[in-house]
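This follows on from our talk about sequence and fold. Go ahead and set the record down below:
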Amino acid sequence: MSMRRIYNLIRTIVQARLAEIAASIQETPWAQAIRNVRQAWRHRSSTAVARAMLQRYPHCYLVNADFMGFPGIELAEYRTCSTDDVPLVRVSQADGAELMTDRAARPIRFLDLGATLIPGDGESPFPPATAIIEAIEAEGWHILTVDDARRIVEGRDMARSVGACLSTRNTWLTMVENAADRIGIADSLFPFCEQVIATRAAIIVVYTPGLPRPLRLWRLSMNWIMPPLPPVA
């Protein structure tokens, strides 16, 4: 075998081994945590959040971030929407015009009143609490809305739960509590949900596997992107 063939063979083996090491590192919990944080920050923009809400919800309010004054919405319209907690997303005038393209929107209200209701692609009912927790684990981050928080808190109620698990400590857990405890985010998830419901303001939660259990779920504020919702009662 010539020296050139030996060199090419060694290089191929080394490249294959380096690729295996790189793939192995990417699958470690620390690498996943770093990737999840980066993806959450990348999606923490007004247009990205607005697109996500339009995909998930039947309706969404776009609030004009460039409006000179205080933007307003019609509460009678808001309270008669198909969902109780229609999200509000603050976007620029240019981004709002792009998002309203090909939708049954009212751009004049967006310009003159500072906010308008536009139809989204989502449908009710929303996913159950266990599906939300599974999405947090799979995606590594999640925009936790008031609707999400309500489903998770309600799913924690043993009186309403359709199933339960017996822990090694001889205590009973709902399926929602079990799903959160399995990936070590129960200590943070439920307080975050209670805070979202109390303030009616959405947050981004970031799953960081590999850290101690109390640190496996982080919150990112979106107050300037998704302001608190108005009361519906």
Notes: The first strand starts at residue 59 and ends at 64. The radius of gyration is 23 Å.
